[in-house]
# Entry
Amino acid sequence: MSEFPIIKKTPEMEEYEEETGKLALWKGKVSKDFEKWKEWGYVATTLQGIMLDLLGKRDKAIACYQKALKTIGNRSNDMFFDIDINKEWLEKRLKTPFKWD
# Structure
């Protein structure tokens, strides 16, 4: 019997691998890069949605905001362009496109 627990790959890990080209599991352990991606991925996805809104690609922007909403949890991050990225802000973006004021 193995002294290490067997970790099964999740759909989220597969998404990470497809998106980044990196392995989520390495030598039987969850990679540190995957953990960082999981924690901060909503910020990158939100920024992608903002850019798509500014380019007039609303459908793709909404898809990004929806994806970010699935992973944000109760986190809030106010260090990007003075925007407090949280659930409320993302839900607003689903209804109203992002615009620079």
Remarks:
- The helical segments are 11-20, 32-54, 58-72, 87-95.
- Residues 32-54 form the longest helix (23 residues).
- The two ends are 61 Å apart (CA to CA).
- The chain has one domain: 11-95.
